[in-house]
Amino acid sequence: MTKEHEIIFAGFGGQGVLSLGRLIAYAGMIEGKEVSWMPSYGPEMRGGTANCIVIVSGSRISSPIVTKFDTAVLLNQPSVDKFEKAVKPGGLLIYEQSTVIKPPTRDDIEIICISANEEADKLEAKQVANMVMAGAFIERRPIIKIETIIDALKKALPPRRHNLIPFNEKALERGRELAKQAEHVSA
């Protein structure tokens, strides 16, 4: 991989947006890639807005400041409203179905809708909805290996949380399956 891939992950605080971005960046580091992770969140934290910009590259990253993205992974309506226009033409926008009332409408990007919250409920682990989104993202844009994400989880999670790894693995796999099945809302 020589090209940079610039991603925005955005949603409400508490949805695991910052953790998701950090995990993708950490997995990129494990694979020997250059990475940047830049979080941003409101003073409210849980329930407020949160986003992070992640860059994964095969070469040196010139700046972590990005205003146009190859991919946007959006977990709520305010994030769709704010970042839909920031996806580069030909890019990818993945959004969470139950939290977005007015879906994105651009016709120059690939848009897929993922029912991450519903799938996390089925796994009886609401906290893994972000991992369903991660699986969907990696399926559509395989900038890192899914196995590396699992390895990163094992290293990033404290030992007392390792009991959650099987739920995270199932969520990643379910996200990949949903992305394979998803119809392109736009192309």
Characterise the protein shown here:
Helix content is about 35%, strand content about 25%. With about 190 residues, it is of the alpha/beta class. It has a six-stranded mixed sheet with strand order 2-3-1-4-5-6, sandwiched between helices. Helix 1 crosses helix 5 and helix 4 crosses helix 6 (about 165-180). It is globular, with a radius of gyration of 15 Å. The mean pLDDT is about 90.
List keywords for this structure.
single chain; 187 residues; alpha/beta; Pyruvate-ferredoxin Oxidoreductase, domain 3; six-stranded mixed β-sheet; 6 helices
On the 0 to 100 scale, the average pLDDT is 91
Helical content class: 25-40%
The neighbouring-strand order within the major sheet is: 2-3-1-4-5-6
Name the CATH homologous superfamily: Pyruvate-ferredoxin oxidoreductase, PFOR, domain III
Q: Any idea what the radius of gyration is? A: 15 Å
Shape: globular
Given helix and strand content, the structural type is: alpha/beta
How many helical elements?
A: 6
Second rung of CATH, namely the architecture: 3-Layer(aba) Sandwich
Topology diagram in text:
Elements lengths: L4 E8 L4 H14 L3 E8 L7 E9 L11 E6 L2 H7 L3 E10 L13 E5 L1 H7 L6 H12 L5 H11 L8 H17 L6
Helix pairs in contact: 1-5, 3-4, 4-6, 5-6
